[in-house]
Design a protein that fits this description.
49% of the residues lie in helices and 17% in strands. With 226 residues, it is α/β, with parallel strands linked by helices. The radius of gyration is 17 Å and the shape is globular. Bound molecules: cytidine-5'-diphosphate (2 copies). One cytidine-5'-diphosphate binds at residues 11, 13-19, 156-157, 160, 202, 205-207, 210.
Length: 226
Amino acid sequence: GAGLINIAIDGPAGAGKSTVARKVAEQLRYVYIDTGAMYRAVTFGALRAGIEPGDSEQVGSLAASLDIRLLPSENGQKVVLGGEDVTEQIRSREINLRVSRVAAIEQVRTRLVSMQRELAGRKGVVMDGRDIGTHVLPDAELKVFLTASVRIRAERRYRETGQADRVDLEQLEREIEQRDRLDSEREISPLICAEDAVVIDSTSLTIEQVVSQIVELSRTKKVEAK
Ligand code: CDP
Ligand code: CDP
C-alpha cells in the first residue's frame, strides 16, 4: 500500500526486540512478525520427534515438512504447529538451549526465510530476528539494531522466567552469552549489525523510550520513501 514501509529489528537475545516490535506495530497499525518463534517452533518439533538438534539432515527434512503458522492474537502473535498452539511451550529453557544449533542448519534457514519474505510481501511489516536487515529484508526502509548489556538482558529475562525454568542470574547470563556467540559465529546469516542500521542501546532506556524512537524514525523514513 501507499506510504507503508518495512521495519527490520535485529539484535541479541533479550534486547527487547519482540516487546518493542509488537508495540511499534500496534502504534503504526502494522503487522508484527516474530521470526525467532519460527526457529523455536522447528526446535520444538525436533525435540518432540526425538531428533537431536545437531542432526542437520533430520532436522532439515523435518523443517521442510512442518506446518508452521504465525497468527495474530491479542498479545501479538500466536504460533501454531500442525494445528496445535505452541506459543507458550516454545519459550522454555529446553528450547533456549537448543534453538541456536537448529538455526544454524542451512535447510532450516532456507525454508523459514522464504516464509518470512512471503509474509512481508506487502509493506507495513515490523519483523524482528537476527538476520532481517542483512538477509531477509535487505531493502527494508528502516533497520534497527537493538542492543543492551548482557547483564541487563539477563536481568530482564530473569524477571520474566517462570518457576519451572528458574536458574540463577549468573547461569542465565552465561546461557544468553552462549546463544549470542553461536548466533554471531555461525556460517549462514550470522547476527551482525547491518551497515545501514540505526543502533539503539536500550541498556538505560525504557520500553516506551525505545518504541517512540523507532516510531519517530519510521516517520522520517516514510517521508524519504515518498
Ligand atoms: O527472544 P530471544 O531473543 O530469546 O530469541 P528469539 O528471537 O526467539 O530467537 C531464538 C533463536 O532463533 C535465536 O537465538 C537464533 O538462534 C534464532 N534466530 C535466527 O537464527 N534468526 C532469526 N531471524 C531469528 C531467530
Ligand atoms: O525479543 P528479545 O529477546 O530481544 O527481548 P524481549 O523478549 O522483547 O525483552 C526481554 C525483556 O526485557 C522483556 O521482559 C521486556 O519487558 C524487557 N525490557 C525492558 O525491561 N526494557 C526495555 N527497554 C526493553 C525490554
